[in-house]
Design goal:
76 residues, mainly alpha
Amino acid sequence: MDTLVKALTVAIFAALLYFVIDYIVGKISNAIDINSLAPTIKYYMCRLGIFDAVNIFVSLMIAGWFTNKILNYLSG
């Protein structure tokens, strides 16, 4: 039963983390509104892969943090 409770807690936390990240990214993209600011800047940032690099970095950072928290929780 203890394992089921831990698995359920991990699933709920992962879902909440996903929605919080989605909400924050939406707020940031609306605040920046780079389309009306400078379309050429967006083009060059996409062309140079800056958006991909930032996305990969943030994803790896969150995945590493989340994995460590889950392993600590499940082992304790």
